């Protein structure tokens, strides 16, 4: 069951959470979204909607409730008390972390997910004391088992410190690796953009790789870097973590070692899904540009690769381009289809021209 509070004219976040939930393997039976200017301080949704939610849960036999918003500690436990201890409650951040967890295939990614989860749920453990009497031994939020409050806090803090130390070492290693690449005079091009915009498909095409695609949101949690030769020049292309709207800061911090590829890149190629509606393109592009701005320290050359043009007609493409030009008037634009290999040579030409301005007269590429 998807639940939440949102503007009555805005169902973007609800649809996105529903897609994430389905991709995670949940069967979504219904949505209950309340139109509110401000969320209810106790339950996020109002008391009337809460009663409606209880009725729907009983009617459908649902045992998982996913909120499209982020829940505060007090809201989480009041909802758990009202809906029953047999119900699993997730908010938007915990759902994203579940998806990340299912995608994590390296030790680094698993550490990053664990750190983000521990930091996010730590304040909830404190709230448990204030709500004493509400199943006081229920701790761990489905991951760490049942621990008394003080023992859990002590464990969590030690574990957070250890994870931060390990990830700091990884971050330093990543930065040193990037600097070594620069020392051998190979510029770095990082592919970025909203999740499922086609970054990995483009990476596979440029780098002649076969990374998995089509798994759904956040297929890539670890960065991959390969050398690419084009128009008589070479550069490193990097596939990076996909972005989402209002990317939780704790996830950005936990995945710093991964996102350093965005921070230190010489050129960013930001992918946009042309098959989205104009309103979705605007929202996703605004979110992507905002997140990138929070990561990079200085303005970087930017190419917007409008992907999946094979799925749209001229009218929709014109509308998409208008939105993109309004939001990023100084960015260069390349219309491509990574899946079909359309205009990839043109994109490579733009990349090389940005990295090596003196090579603009070259015509052939390999």
Brief summary:
The protein has 366 residues and is of the alpha/beta class. It has twelve helices and ten strands.
Count of discrete alpha- or pi-helical segments spanning 4 or more residues: 12
The CATH architecture classification of the largest domain is 3-Layer(aba) Sandwich
How many domain modules?
Answer: 3
What string, H for helix and E for strand, traces the elements in order?
EHEHEHEHHHEHEEHHEHEHEH
Strand adjacency order, main sheet? 6-7-5-8-9-10
Q: Fraction of residues in helices?
A: 40-55%
Q: Find the structural class using helix and strand composition.
A: alpha/beta
Question: Could you please say which CATH topology of the largest domain applies here?
Answer: Rossmann fold
Gap between N and C termini: 51 Å
Q: Which ranges are low-confidence, i.e. pLDDT below 50, for 5 or more consecutive residues?
A: 132-147, 362-366
Strand content: 5-15%
CATH superfamily of the largest domain: P-loop containing nucleotide triphosphate hydrolases
Q: Care to count the β-strands?
A: 10
* Overall pLDDT level: 85
Name of the top-level CATH class of the largest domain: Alpha Beta
Q: For the CA atoms, what is the radius of gyration?
A: 22 Å
| Shape type | globular
Main sheet overview:
6 strands, mixed
Quaternary form:
single chain
